[in-house]
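Work Package 4 report. The design task specified in the project plan requires that, given a folded chain encoded as structure tokens, an amino acid be chosen for each position. We show below one input record used in the internal validation round.
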């Protein structure tokens, strides 16, 4: 399983360092139960298709998304406006695109356009019972969290 997880951790760390100018510290990966609501407020999601199927999401609380966007743009934001939504979509797009390059030796993949889910304590429900969502928590800005979630068949 680590051959799938490590590229995601490496790419996510690199993208945040280059784009957001901050370090991420990966925590211990865990599986999310289908029926559990999570503590995040916004998720950027990209679907994977091709020789395997799945999805990648990056999720966080509103305050974290705003701070990330302000760091990228240099503009003050107070809520999940279109700039914040675009920033989170762009981050998940860059992370997934770079991971796709790293996994091309194992799979030929196609990625979708990013889409955003926002709402307090939402869940990402997968339609198939057999799919499990692997979540990798990261620390950012010393005391905030970003969650990278993955499922691959």
């Amino acid at each position: 399983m680590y051959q799938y997880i490590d590229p995601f951790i490496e790419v996510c760390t690199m993208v945040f360092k280059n784009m957001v100018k901050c370090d991420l510290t990966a925590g211990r990966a865990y599986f999310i139960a289908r029926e559990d609501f999570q503590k995040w407020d916004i998720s950027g999601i990209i679907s994977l298709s091709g020789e395997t199927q799945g999805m990648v999401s990056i999720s966080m609380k509103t305050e974290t998304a705003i701070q990330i966007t302000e760091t990228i743009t240099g503009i003050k934001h107070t809520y999940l406006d279109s700039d914040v939504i675009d920033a989170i979509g762009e981050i998940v797009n860059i992370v997934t695109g770079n991971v796709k390059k790293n996994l091309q030796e194992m799979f030929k993949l196609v990625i979708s356009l990013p889409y955003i889910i926002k709402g307090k304590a939402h869940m990402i429900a997968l339609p198939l019972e057999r799919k499990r969502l692997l979540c990798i928590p990261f620390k950012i800005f010393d005391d905030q969290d970003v969650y990278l979630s993955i499922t691959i068949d």
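The beta strands are 25-26, 30-32, 42-50, 54-60, 109-111, 115-118, 133-140, 144-152. Validation will be extended to a larger panel in the next phase.
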